[in-house]
Automatic annotation (TrEMBL):
Any one cellular-component term (Gene Ontology): plasma membrane
Origin superkingdom: Eukaryota
Keywords for this protein: Cell membrane, G-protein coupled receptor, Membrane, Olfaction, Receptor, Sensory transduction, Transducer, Transmembrane, Transmembrane helix
Keyword Membrane: yes
The name this protein goes by in its record: Olfactory receptor
Family statement: Belongs to the G-protein coupled receptor 1 family.
Protein's membrane topology: Multi-pass membrane protein
Xref: Pfam families: 7tm_4
Domain G-protein coupled receptors family 1 profile: 39-285
Record-level Gene Ontology MF annotations: G protein-coupled receptor activity; olfactory receptor activity
Length: 312
């Protein structure tokens, strides 16, 4: 049981105190959230029902898109509802739950991006053994390990704040719950706990990023001996992964790898990795990938033909 002290709920200050800005943000973020659900769901469905997208790369992509839906859904619905609410509150248990799943899906995304980089490394560096190494069983195990790692990471983060006493104040200058804002409200010394939290989250980010950096560096080095057409195709595929990695790890590094101090830009940076990045991922992967676009068209025409047949 969380040691709440006198605090049973927290109050968010939200994005802005201006009612006009809040109404504009409500329309904007409602549209963005619907686009996130639609875009990522389309990728999941396309990969699931297209036989031409049966390779490990698309298997991991479908799981990444599903995680993006879950990741954004931990914060966006609450943000959208609060934009039309005068009192933006969340219970203590709800705050802990939101923090837990926010870190679960964030860590799973990091692991999946790392796995996808390893997949591209094998496909380019060891093409003759790729099919044998990255079979369906191994792919399923890797995804399962990503989910397990995400839960273990989040449990470690939550354990640090689970028994903290919250005696007041209970106002969070943010639009969702996270471990660092909660530490600032605890009525006890949290310096050592803060170091552990930053070490846990920071080490996960740094190790994942280093693995990604090594993988893509090896890929670029190996491509020197390939033909121009082979290099173009490989670089086109890897470019999508690199863009997503930069979009995800860049903002995360700003939040979790700097000293734990209040920063007015934190909310804007958080919007980038909780809303903008999940929105951009489907466009990055689909617009840069001819196979995905062709499969989407085929599914669309198939659905239209079945609809016309049903009406006939």
């Amino acid at each position: 049981m969380v040691q709440s002290g006198n605090v049973t709920e927290f109050i968010f200050l939200g994005l802005s105190p201006n009612p006009e800005i809040q109404r504009v943000c409500f329309v904007l973020f409602l549209f963005l959230y619907m686009a996130i659900i639609l875009g990522n769901s389309l990728i999941v469905l396309t990969v699931s029902f297209s036989k031409s997208l049966g390779s490990p790369m698309y298997f991991f992509l479908s799981h990444l898109s599903f995680v993006e839906i879950c990741y954004s859904s931990t914060t966006s619905p609450k943000l959208i509802v609060d934009l039309l609410s005068e009192r933006k509150s969340i219970s203590l248990e709800g705050c802990i739950t939101q923090t837990f799943f926010f870190h679960v899906f964030g860590a799973i995304e990091m692991f999946l991006l790392t796995i996808m980089a390893y997949d591209r490394y094998l496909a380019i560096y060891r093409p003759l053994h790729y099919v044998t190494i990255m079979n369906r069983r191994i792919c399923a195990i890797l995804v399962g390990m990503a989910w397990l790692g995400g839960f273990l990471h989040s449990i470690a983060q939550i354990v640090f704040v689970f028994h903290l006493p919250f005696c007041g104040p209970n106002v969070i200058d943010h639009y969702f719950c996270d471990v660092l804002p909660l530490l600032e409200l605890a009525c006890t010394d949290t310096f050592f706990i803060g170091l552990l939290i930053v070490a846990n989250g920071g080490s996960l980010s740094m190790v994942s990023f280093i693995i990604l950096l090594i993988s893509y560096s090896v890929i670029l080095f190996h491509l020197r001996g390939h033909s121009k057409e082979e290099r173009r195709k490989a670089l086109s595929t890897c470019a999508s992964h690199v863009i997503v990695v930069i979009l995800f790890f860049g903002p995360c590094a700003i939040i979790y790898l700097r000293p734990s101090t209040t920063n007015s830009m934190d909310k804007m940076v958080a919007i980038f990795y909780t809303v903008i990045t999940p929105l951009l991922n489907p466009f990055i992967y689909s617009l840069r990938n001819a196979e995905v676009k062709n499969s989407m068209r085929k599914l669309w025409f198939r659905a239209m033909n079945q609809g016309e047949t049903g009406r006939g």
